Amino acid sequence: MTGIPVASVVGAPISGLILDHVHWLGLSSWRWLLMLEGIPAVVCGCLTYFLLPSRPVEAEFLTKAEKGWITAELEREEHEKQRRQRISAARTLVNARVWHLAAIGFAHGVATYTLSFWLPQVMKSLLSSYSYSMVGFATMIPSLTGLIMMIVVSRHSDRTLERRYHVAASALVGGTALLSFGASHSTFLSIAFLVVAVTGNYSILGPFFSIPNEFLTGFSAASGIALITSVANLGGLVGPYATGFIRQRTGSLHAGLAFAGASLFLSAALMLLFPRRVYEGEQLGAADSAHKF
Length: 293
Known about the structure:
By secondary structure, the chain is an all-alpha fold. It is built from 13 helices and no strands. It has one domain (81-292): Growth Hormone, Chain: A (Up-down Bundle), CATH 1.20.1250.20.
């Protein structure tokens, strides 16, 4: 999950530099932006097939003892989840809890993609007198802060074995910042609100995607997480388009960001409504595992 903010930390300043300085072969800088940033994705996609281990025993960076311990723990957790409740891959696709998480993911996706697509333009509007390069470096700041805090929040969630309130609190913090953005008339304060918004939004990811594995196993976990992710990605269609539509009607991005903030509030409410008993029992096994470790 940290790869998401890392991509922005690295990509934002590089994008700004390309837009300012790359005009080769008579092509526009935005065309070069797409090509130069698309090539590494294609190359890494090919390398992943050969380099990404499929299971612990294939991971060369683990010692033999670590491989054995992880494999044993995974088998124990799998057996424990199957003993309590086994859901087939097909039943997972119509499981109410999975769709509940998918709805949370969708609301979060609206905010995530709105920030991803519109943050550079928001920064440019705040720093209109600066070059694309400077805007790119400024856009990096929220993602860098979000990267640090999402690790802190995730580690705290793991130590306490609690997910719901970590997700809901992060969503509320991010949503409040986005709703407050429109009330700010200071460039510094506006950027501070954006930093908090991005930080809250990224901090949701770790605890949220830990929940499906606490009651799904094997192929059901794979299909369940795929469904949740797919529905969440639909937020990428709604969020940016809705923000653009609102901007056309109002002439400002403030209302569009407020819409994203409201989506985060919705995700927080849905998370708090998620049945706590569903995964409290599963945490006993996780607690035993953490204690042994």
